[in-house]
User: What shape does this take?
Amino acid sequence: MLGWELPPHNSGGLGVACYHMSKALALAGAKIDFVVPYSAEHDIDFMTIHSATKLTPLERYGLGAYDSKTVINKALSAADINNLKDMRGVQKRYVRYVERWVKKHRPDAIHAHDWLTMEAGMRAKELTDAPLIVHVHATEFDRSGTENGNPLVHEIEYQGLMMADRIIAVSNITKSIIMQKYNIPESKIEVVHNAIDVASFNDGYVYDHRTYRYLEALKLEGFTIVTTITRFTIQKGLPQFIRAAARASEKYDKLAFLLAGDGEQRDELIELAADLGISDKVFFTGFVRGKQWRDAYSVSDIFVMSSVSEPFGLTALEAAHHDNALIITRQSGVGEVLNSIFRYDFWDVDVLADQIVGIATSDALKNELKNNVLHEYIKISWRDVADKCLKIYESIKSGVTA
Amino acid sequence: MSSRGIVLYLHVHQPFRVRKYSVFDTAVNHDYFNEQDYGTERNNEMVFRKVADKSYRPMNALLQQMLDTHPDFKVSLSISGTLIEQAEAWAPDVLDSFKRLVDTGRVEIVAETYYHSLAFFYSRREFENQVEMHKAKIREVFGVETKVFRNTELAYNNDLAKWADNYGFKGILAEGWDPILGWRSPNFVYKPPETNNISLLLKNYRLSDDLAFRFGNKEWPEYPLTVDKYNDWTNASIADQPLINLFMDYETFGEHQWEDTGIFNFFESFIGKWLEGPENTFYTVSEAVETHKPVDEVSMPNTVTWADTERDLTAWLGNNMQQEALRNLYNMENDILRTGDIDLIADWRKLQTSDHVYYMCTKWFNDGDVHAYFSPYESPYDAFLYYMNAIRDVRFRLHNDHKTGGLNG
Assistant: This one.
């Protein structure tokens, strides 16, 4: 398994998905060697973790793995393997590590996650002839939120998708991007939606009303709290969310908006809220972790996923678990596994505003949404994800021996 | 004289669906039923024109032909007030063809609420108003008096029967549901408890649903349903009994079951085939209760409908959104009626049509049977959202135009 991060050293959903998928696979009997590009302690005993470099996780964050704006323009051959301040240098080191390792231990299958590890995956396939599964959690189109993105990253993704024996997409939305933008035949792609590990939330957590005390006071006054928890990047569609907040507030004033997270758009969003005259209703928390992070879900009544392009969107399931009514863009994959939600197109500010006001002004609607979605997300388990992965491993193993 | 007959009863109805009506329309635009987008099933005119082509025109032509060909053929129709209004606006020829059917004297019109509402369960006064309105409209359009009553969705209980009896109806329609009937057959006339002159006709749901729901279903083991097979079933079912009550949506013919399923040809051939039996005939609902005396009393203290496996009202009133929607609507009754504002009252009544709350049903999600859910909205939540925005606008009009009512909620 070739990945870029695992909790607690993760900056986003990729690490969480890799962790739970690996754990479920291990429980189902798979023996997993998981390669990460940094060195750190993980409290993980169900698989062997390999560190490809001596970097600390924090140093690796500095590389901006998820930020399309970071300059990534070198072919791997041109990268300096000794320059661990350069993304490409780290990736080159990662590939080198994988090369050495597979020469000694031939895997039954190589499972590579996203463009970050695709080159290593292709190299491992070349050396061992083991089948390559490329798991797409996000493409460069999703990360950049535009048609452009980084050409070199596009190129790596294209090669990886071409070379892969099978491709796993986390949603039908992602599948169609892979087909349309990368011209990959449908028959090669399998959709395996992510899941949520409900058990991991049962860790004795109790909501602390003091964390967001001001919001709690507003709730006592009859306010409805509308939340999003995300990175503030163009992919997430947050300016439209702020505009909808302003539109909704025109019709109903007992609304407060909580934006938990951080990112390069933060200042722009603060400014936009001020321009629209709703600064007093919009709350920016900065990056939240642990208790603050969970309490943000708990204080919230309505969770909005405003993404322009979201391959899956695990946070929506987390929000549902913490008793939120969900409003999700049609451009978010997680909507494919849920019925009891509102959907809108990310640009449609008035529709989002209408839905927010509708929920805030009807307890019946709010409770129906909350209660019904609880029955839906719980049906999606990592066990099922693991079963689907194992089936895919099996299907190509037999194909390759021929 | 023939001794046994089919009571064919077809229900004709279209609602005024609420458009994508947002909070930004509330208190600004009052055109709830006027969806501009011609490409959606919320556009009432588009739906009506489509169903007229697929169902009303070809089926009325076929019914006319059957009446002309077979002197013993008869049929009963319930036509909602909202459907008549739509036909007047968008397809007067369809209404004319219904009139020609009624003019034969062998097509009976069944009474119901004008707005196809669940008013019986909320306001007896409003319910009676709507029954009166429907009677008047039928008199005006068709020149006939209704004598037999059916309630919206065939929602029936003992209280309804007592009301209909007191009101002067001589017959009333209900579902022939096994848990109520026990060993008894729906193929007889029955009497509701504590009534004097009214008779109860019970739907034979097996034979009705063979046509309404299963006819074109290729997964059904009995597919394809041939005329001979169905004729055998009906003859076997009726044996030494007087009636078979085939009750279904009119739109079964051409809309629920498309023409390419062969439903029209089947219907035509079956009528002929059935009437080949020397004892076989057809009855209108009135003839059925005049010709045959009740054989027993059937009691339904709890409301029974013709919907779903539960045969109850949960598809309309099963969740909190549905209950909240209708509670808000009926809470305005006194204020609305007092205004005397004809447009406002009509809009308020159009919002009573049961289809609106049906679109808010969420029980299909729990059953995992999402495809059973037919709606012009993307989800039940959208249906509720637009509906509540419209309710708020009605409340705004009360407040703004008539200085009455509160604006709460």
User: Anything to note?
Assistant: Residues 73 and 271 of chain B are 8 Å apart (CA to CA).
